[in-house]
Design goal:
188 residues, 5 helices, 0% strand, mainly alpha, globular
Length: 188
């Protein structure tokens, strides 16, 4: 039996509008930042990184985690033991990315070690070292954009207020994220 569900096209349109706006602000911001002096760039990027950390931390701890824990609380609104698993999974996610970077570096070093033996190891090592961060940035950014879209969509499904709150947090985070990614790709 097929289950019918209603699609709220107004919320879908608002969600798509905000995701598009967030991505376009990052692209336009990066283009503007190219024309700034290094000192001005550093001051602006520091300001936006602080906005990103503050908005994402605030959104996570005051908006997202309480919603995630709502079903893991007893009748007195006290957290049950199983709610700690969410925090553990979050911490494991951070460590998983750390170990992925290490694993990619090890793989590229092993590839370098099995190549033709010449006396320019430092040049090959630098080339192998450059691939690891690039792949981490590409995979991490894809996963990051997927999670951003899912969180914005889920927030708009819950309510317009939630959707706007999450969209604002993602908007504050996206500019330093994209400009930092551009910086690392140029540096590597």
């Amino acid at each position: 039996m097929l289950h019918r569900f209603s699609v709220n096209f107004k919320l879908l349109g608002i969600g798509l509008l905000f995701v598009t706006l967030i991505k376009m602000c990052a692209v336009v911001g990066i283009d503007i930042m190219r024309h700034l002096t290094k000192n001005t760039y550093n001051q602006i990027i520091t300001l936006f990184v602080s906005f990103a950390v503050g908005s994402l931390s605030g959104s996570s701890f005051y908006h997202l985690l309480p919603q995630a824990h709502a079903d893991l609380m007893d009748e007195n609104r006290e957290p049950m033991h199983s709610s700690l698993h969410l925090e553990h999974i979050s911490i494991l996610g951070v460590y998983a990315f750390f170990f992925c970077v290490k694993l990619i570096k090890i793989i590229f070093e092993i590839r370098k070690a099995h190549g033709i033996c010449v006396h320019d190891h430092s040049i090959e090592f630098r080339a192998a070292n450059r691939q690891s961060p690039r792949w981490m940035i590409v995979f991490g950014d894809g996963l990051h954009n997927l999670i951003d879209g899912i969180s914005i969509g889920a927030a708009f499904v819950e309510s317009i207020h939630s959707g706007l709150s999450i969209s604002l947090a993602v908007l504050c985070e996206e500019f330093p994220h994209e400009s930092g990614k551009k910086f690392w790709f140029n540096r590597i």
